[in-house]
Amino acid sequence: MTFRCPNGHASADPDLCTACAMPMSDSVGLPRNPTFLMAPKARCSSCGAVRGGDHKYCPECGTRYAAETDPPTPPVLVADFEVRINVDRGYYDDTAATRGDERPVFPSYAPERTVRLRGEAVEIGRVRRVRPGGKALPPVNLAEKPAADLGVSHVHAVLQREGDDWTVTDLDSKNGTYVSGVRLESGAPRLLAPDDVINIGFFTAITLHRKDTEGSRP
């Protein structure tokens, strides 16, 4: 079935002329659907055919429609991780009997520190300065004031990434590494759960946190 527009063209579309895009009229010459005057139908940029449905290509000439009509690509979320370092009064009090004559003073001021984890293996230790030809500072360095922890060994433990999981391994430290109250066997990796707390030294508590960001992992 075909229809005739006010300009005399034959059209298969009862609302809009496929030849001149003129709105079709009723018997008294008024547009059948006045809204077409404000919002004309989209047309193919190559052949002028009226676009319809959710097609990505023009059914008449095969031209791909403009890219802005495609649904946006969702961002790729990449898991980034950080550790938050605090002092733990409960751990300090619980281990008081094992400290002997060292008797460190619990820090009166110790703001939380955050360290972003980079790479697949991140060392935890305590190094005040790097000597010529010596080893670099550990990424998680517990020698920093005002909460330097003398109970942390120079090379104490290592965090290792396995996909989106992390393990912690004690590296034969003097005072040991504890995860949620359990002392780790030296050299044996422990898979970390989201709510685990790593305690080392005399009063240090370390927690792992995941942060999803857009882009590629550094």
TrEMBL record:
Q: Does the keyword Phosphoprotein apply?
A: yes
What SUPFAM superfamilies does UniProt report for this protein, alphabetically? SMAD/FHA domain
Checking Gene3D superfamilies in the record gives: 2.60.200.20
Q: Where is the FHA domain?
A: 122-184
Q: What InterPro entries does the annotation carry?
A: Cell_Proc_Reg/RNA_Proc, FHA_dom, SMAD_FHA_dom_sf
Assigned keywords, A-Z = Phosphoprotein
Superkingdom per UniProt? Bacteria
> PROSITE patterns, alphabetically?
FHA_DOMAIN (PS50006)
| Stated name of the protein | FHA domain-containing protein
Lineage, top ranks: Bacteria, Bacillati, Actinomycetota, Actinomycetes, Glycomycetales
